[in-house]
Design a protein that fits this description.
- This protein has helices spanning 33-53, 69-74, 97-104, 117-125, 130-142, and strands at residues 2-11, 16-19, 27-30, 88-96.
- The protein is α+β, with helices and mostly antiparallel strands and 146 residues long.
- The chain has two domains: 2-104, Double Stranded RNA Binding Domain; 109-146, no CATH class.
- The protein has a four-stranded antiparallel sheet with strand order 3-2-1-4.
């Protein structure tokens, strides 16, 4: 399922800073518009994927016309602090979080580990899948919802 959220792209002299107002803390940057868009997609997918893993509710996206480009910019500064006028644009950013996560976050990573031979032999004889067991144990240890 594709998730689509409004994002503000601000020119900052070295590229673009990107803020996704509906997803608290979902901020990133890129050296060009293309790079910033790729980073925005990665940031948004990572934010939503992590929140889902932790069992949190995902906020509904705001309509693009409801996003206050200047207001979002002003939130980046301390009250009364001098700051430049915002330059950039707001647009919708879309990503299929499940597909993106499968390619970028969930791709298997080969790990090499050592256990005593007797434990290896006993586990193999019991038909234990080492990869599944390690994943389950790591999730339990980290408190990640199954």
């Amino acid at each position: 399922m594709v998730s689509t959220y409004p994002a503000c792209f601000y020119e900052d002299g070295t590229g673009y800073s990107v803020f996704i107002p509906d997803l608290p803390g979902a901020n990133t940057c890129g050296s060009s518009i293309e790079d910033a868009m790729e980073m925005a997609i990665d940031c948004m997918a990572g934010w939503i994927f992590t929140e889902r893993l932790e069992g949190h509710q995902i906020p509904e996206p705001s309509p693009l016309e409801d996003v206050d480009f200047e207001g979002e910019w002003n939130k980046l500064w301390e009250p009364g602090e001098e700051h430049p006028e915002p330059h950039g644009f707001k647009t919708m950013v879309a990503v299929d979080v499940d597909e993106y996560a499968a390619l970028h976050f969930c791709a298997p990573v080969k790990k090499t580990l050592s256990i005593p031979r007797w434990l290896n032999d006993a586990a193999k004889a019991a038909g234990i899948n080492f990869s599944q067991l390690l994943q389950k144990a790591l999730k339990e240890e980290l408190g990640i919802a199954q």
